[in-house]
Amino acid sequence: MILKNIKIIDVLQDGRGVARTEGKTVFVENAVYGETLDAEIIAEKKNFLEAYKLNTKIKSDYQRKPPCPYFYECGGCSIMDINYKTQLELKKNLIINAIRKSTKIELSDLEILESPELRYRNKVRLQVDEDGGLNYLEAYSKKKVKIDDCLIANELLSK
Q1: Contact 52/72 with Cβ under 8 angstroms?
Q2: Over the Cα atoms of the chain, what is R_g?
Q3: Cα(32)–Cα(83) distance, rounded to whole angstroms?
Q4: Which single residue of 51, 60, 71, 124 could bond 66 by disulfide (Cβ 3.0 to 4.6 Å)?
Q5: C-alpha 72: how far from chain center
Q6: Exposed e or buried b for every residue in 48-66, given b needs 16+ CB within 10 A?
Q7: What confidence tens digit (pLDDT) does each residue in 59-100 have?
Q8: Which residues neighbour 13 within 8 Å (Cβ) at sequence distance 6 or greater?
């Protein structure tokens, strides 16, 4: 089944877009926060649908060209194609929602301390290939993606 003209109103921690339609929440792979798109349902669960983006109808105002050349093939990060200020707001909402779900505490806001946009991560999960090279896994896959440098990894990790 195809869902037409659905608006991505939020993102999950893994980067999938969130939309609402037909009384259900829809999680959409490869969606960008703020865009309107057509999607194909790939799984129907009791309380939600899983879908894959077919095409963009209206581009997101928050979208940008990601600084990482591996972004579209590597699964190491998920929302680098959204401007940084919006990334911070989305991450803040993820934290507020996680606190609400696990503790039932309702927070109206939360102060986020900005880190550098790049080179902030102290832990990465890499896969070793047959030649001893380090790789990330492609998003939603077990396929290895060879990278020369990870822009979110701390410089010492990258070396």
Answers
A1: no
A2: 17
A3: 11
A4: 71
A5: 11
A6: ebebebeebeeebebbeee
A7: 999 999 999 999 988 888 889 999 999 999 999 999 999 999
A8: 78, 94
First-to-last alpha carbon distance for the chain, in angstroms, is 47
Q: Which residue has the tokens 């939360």?
A: 110
Supply the pLDDT for residue 95: 94
Q: What is the pLDDT of residue 67?
A: 94
Give the Cβ contact number of residue 43 at 10 Å. Answer: 10
Per-residue pLDDT of 15-67, as tens digits, reads 999 999 978 999 999 999 999 999 999 999 999 999 999 999 999 999 999 99
pLDDT at position 140 over 80: no
Quote helix, strand, coil % in the chain, to nearest 5.
Answer: 15, 35, 50
Kind plus residue range of the DSSP H or E element containing 73 = none
Distance CA 6, CA 4 (A): 6
Pull the structure tokens for residue 138. Answer: 């492609």
